[in-house]
């Protein structure tokens, strides 16, 4: 095991003392132990830079080297006032709930220039940057004062020391929650739609709301949970989206909500589900809420998901039940070639996509109407599968019947998401 004496003897080698002598001789004034020792940060592991500086200062004094006293020219007294930065950081953190943090520093131009000059004098072979030491030392003191953990990979809060302004700022990382939502009313979009006329500014067409629709799934969830986390905003990331006039029933649609800059990070999610239900009776529920990491957003948005729909169809001309059953059977298991529907081509690329119908069942039949259940690949446009969209979707129910068919009501009853939530837990 390496002893303190052994570590000290490493620093007391002539080559290191000679470099320290050069620093004292050619520097722009007094130098503190932290800044002196930091130029030898990779020498004698297990020591602080301050301790390295003390050892070298003592070795220089034994050589009768005169060392100027006063404010350090390199850090401008920064390490003498280290506790001031710790106090500022603790005050900024006081309002926040967190388990992990990281300290970062924005170094001023003067200190950067001084550090570059120091490396010209002493070389940088054994040194570490000033901000690395400052981050570490302030971080150690925050750990001691709060019992929280300095975390490099996934800190919940980043403490930013701004040496330009002498201020501390916080970068509060988002909280992510996975769940599924059920939407019981038609006419509610998943996210806010800005008014096409004013693009969100507010006009007579949108009754000066800036929105095409009064509310959205995102806004309803946000109104119920944002205050619980004391965050500044919330964004909903859904696994696809249903049409505005469709309900989302059955198992619900998977989503991840991102709560931005939360002051609270640990809320009872079961109670949160109950709150959303109570505040949105007949409109919306959320289920299966659990905390996840940031990567879960991409997984939910990009994962393949088979969808199951229940559709009420209007038949424009008399169609016999046997004919309808034959047409339904002909679509069962078929790959559909679907050109981007005319109703959405203004906002999506005009491409031909291939999607499979896994299962298609006739639920009931009446003259002029029927109900169908469809399980298919995600991304298949169901309304166009029924209508044919003027031949842009092939085959379609209308084409096979030789008669016009149109979706009157559409419900999503299952979204079978191909992703492991366990892998995405925070």
Keywords:
426 residues; alpha+beta; VC0802-like; Alpha-Beta Plaits; 4 domains; ten-stranded mixed beta sheet; 27% strand
Which CATH first-tier class of the largest domain would you pick? Alpha Beta
Mean pLDDT: 93
Main beta sheet: 10 strands, mixed
Radius of gyration: 33 Å
Euclidean distance between termini CA atoms: 38 Å
Order of helices and strands: HHHHHEHHEEEEHEEHEHEHEEEHEHE
Number of helices: 13
Number of domains: 4
Helix/strand/pairing class, anyone? alpha+beta
How much of the residues is beta strand, in percent? 25-35%
CATH architect. name of the largest domain: 2-Layer Sandwich
Helix content: 25-40%
Q: How many strands in all?
A: 14
Can you tell me the residue ranges where pLDDT is under 50 for at least 5 consecutive residues?
none
Q: Find the CATH topology of the largest domain.
A: Alpha-Beta Plaits
- Give the overall form: elongated
Task: Write a brief caption for the model.
The protein is built from 13 helices and 14 strands. By secondary structure, it is α+β, with helices and mostly antiparallel strands. Helix 2 crosses helix 4, helix 5 packs across helix 7 and helix 8 crosses helix 9.
Write the layout of secondary structure elements.
Blueprint (H helix, E strand, L loop, with lengths): L3 H8 L2 H13 L6 H6 L10 H14 L19 H12 L6 E7 L2 H14 L7 H17 L2 E2 L6 E6 L4 E6 L2 E9 L33 H13 L3 E6 L7 E15 L8 H11 L4 E9 L2 H8 L2 E11 L5 H11 L3 E5 L12 E15 L2 E8 L5 H6 L5 E2 L2 H5 L3 E13 L9
Parallel strand pairs: 1-2, 1-3, 7-14
Antiparallel strand pairs: 3-4, 5-7, 5-8, 6-7, 9-12, 9-14, 10-11, 10-13, 11-12
Helix pairs in contact: 2-4, 5-7, 8-9
């Amino acid at each position: 095991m390496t002893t303190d004496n052994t570590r000290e003897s490493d620093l007391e080698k002539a080559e290191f003392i000679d470099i320290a002598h050069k620093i004292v001789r050619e520097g722009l004034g007094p130098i503190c132990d932290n800044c002196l020792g930091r130029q030898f940060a990779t020498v004698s592991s297990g020591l602080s830079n301050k301790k390295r500086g003390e050892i070298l200062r003592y070795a220089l004094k034994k050589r009768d080297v005169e060392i100027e006293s006063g404010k350090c020219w390199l850090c401008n007294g920064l390490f003498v006032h280290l506790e001031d930065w710790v106090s500022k950081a603790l005050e900024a953190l006081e309002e926040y709930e967190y388990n992990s943090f990281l300290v970062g520093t924005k170094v001023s131009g003067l200190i950067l220039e001084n550090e570059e000059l120091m490396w010209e004098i002493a070389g940088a072979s054994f040194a570490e940057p000033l901000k690395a030491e400052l981050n570490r030392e302030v971080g150690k003191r925050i750990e001691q004062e709060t019992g929280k953990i300095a975390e490099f990979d996934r800190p919940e809060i980043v403490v930013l020391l701004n040496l330009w302004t002498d201020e501390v700022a916080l970068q509060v990382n988002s909280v992510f929650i996975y769940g599924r939502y059920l939407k019981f009313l038609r006419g509610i979009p998943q996210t806010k739609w800005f008014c096409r006329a004013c693009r969100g500014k507010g006009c007579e067409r949108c009754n000066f709301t800036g929105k095409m629709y009064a509310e959205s799934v995102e806004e309803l969830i946000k109104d119920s949970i944002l205050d619980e986390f004391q965050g500044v905003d919330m964004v909903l990331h859904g696994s696809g989206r249903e049409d505005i006039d469709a309900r989302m029933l059955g198992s619900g649609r998977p989503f991840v909500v991102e709560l931005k800059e939360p002051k609270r990070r640990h809320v009872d999610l079961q109670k949160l589900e109950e709150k959303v239900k109570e505040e949105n009776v007949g409109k919306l529920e959320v289920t299966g809420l659990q905390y996840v990491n940031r990567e879960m957003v991409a997984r939910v948005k990009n994962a393949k998901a088979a969808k199951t729909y229940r559709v009420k169809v209007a038949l424009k001309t008399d169609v016999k039940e046997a004919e309808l059953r034959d047409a339904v059977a002909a679509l069962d298991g078929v790959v559909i070639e679907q050109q981007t529907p005319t109703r959405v081509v203004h906002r999506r690329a005009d491409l031909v996509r291939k999607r499979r119908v896994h299962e298609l069942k006739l639920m009931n039949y009446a003259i002029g109407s029927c109900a169908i259940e469809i399980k298919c690949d995600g991304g298949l446009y169901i309304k166009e599968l029924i209508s044919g969209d003027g031949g842009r979707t092939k085959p379609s129910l209308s084409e096979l019947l030789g008669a016009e068919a149109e979706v009157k009501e559409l419900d999503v009853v299952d979204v079978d998401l191909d992703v492991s939530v366990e892998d995405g837990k925070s």
